[in-house]
Design goal:
The chain is mostly helical and about 190 residues long. The protein folds into two domains: about 110 residues, no CATH class; about 60 residues. Helix content is about 65%, strand content about 10%. α3 packs across α4. The longest helix has 30 residues. The chain starts with a strand and ends in an 8-residue tail after the last helix.
Length: about 190
C-alpha cells in the first residue's frame, strides 16, 4: 500500500486523534476512510465538472499556521493514492498539501481557497470598489454644485443595486462551491 504524509498543527492533530479515538479507530485509519470517501464523492463531482467548461485552479498553499506543525502518515490503496494525486495536481499542490487543506476544510468547516478562487474574490472586490468610487464621484459633484443635479436622473440606481447584488452573489456562490468541493456540505460559507 502507498503511504501519504501531511503536516498539521498540534491543535489539529490533537483534535483529529481525539476524533479517531472517539470512533474506536486510529488516526491513520480515520484519515484513510475520510480520503476514500472524499475521493469517491470527488470522482462523481469531477465527472460532472468535466462535462462543463470548468478550468482547474492554479495554486496557493495555505499560510494560515506559522507554528511548528506535526506530520501524519496515511496508507491508501493504489486507486485512492492515484486519485489523490490527480486532485492535488489539478490545484498544483503536493498530495500532503491537498490532504492538509482537506482536513482543515473539514475541521474548520470553512473555505480553503486556491489561487484562482482568490483571484476571483479579488476581481469581485475590485469591481465593488470601482462602483463605490463612481458613486462617491457623483456625490461629490452634487455636493459641490446643484447645477449637476440632472446627473442623478441619468443614473439608474436600480442597475447599480443589481450590479452590487450580482457581485455579492458571485462571491457567496464561490465560497459555497469551495466548501462543497471539499465535501463539507452542511457548512455555511
Amino acid at each position: 500500500m502507498a503511504q501519504i504524509g501531511t503536516i498539521v498543527t498540534d491543535e489539529i492533530k490533537a483534535q483529529f486523534d481525539l476524533a479517531a479515538r472517539s470512533r474506536g479507530t486510529t488516526s491513520s485509519r480515520l484519515a484513510s476512510a475520510i480520503i476514500a470517501d472524499f475521493l469517491t464523492q470527488g470522482t462523481v463531482a469531477n465527472q460532472a465538472l468535466r462535462q462543463t467548461s470548468w478550468t482547474p485552479p492554479i495554486t496557493v498553499q495555505s499560510r494560515e499556521f506559522e507554528a511548528k506543525t506535526e506530520q501524519v502518515f496515511v496508507r491508501l490503496e493504489p486507486f485512492y493514492f492515484e486519485e489523490l494525486g490527480r486532485l492535488a495536481k489539478e490545484r498544483l499542490w503536493y498530495r500532503g498539501t491537498y490532504l492538509a487543506n482537506l482536513f482543515r476544510a473539514h475541521l474548520t468547516r470553512s473555505p480553503v481557497l486556491c489561487e484562482a478562487e482568490i483571484n476571483a474574490v479579488r476581481q469581485a472586490a475590485r469591481q465593488l470598489a470601482d462602483l463605490g468610487r463612481n458613486i462617491n464621484q457623483i456625490t461629490r459633484k452634487l455636493n459641490a454644485s446643484l447645477e449637476h443635479a440632472n446627473l442623478v436622473t441619468s443614473l439608474d440606481f436600480e442597475l447599480v443595486k443589481m450590479l452590487i447584488e450580482l457581485e455579492s452573489t458571485a462571491v457567496r456562490n464561490l465560497m459555497q462551491a469551495n466548501v462543497r468541493g471539499w465535501g463539507v456540505c452542511d457548512a455555511e460559507a
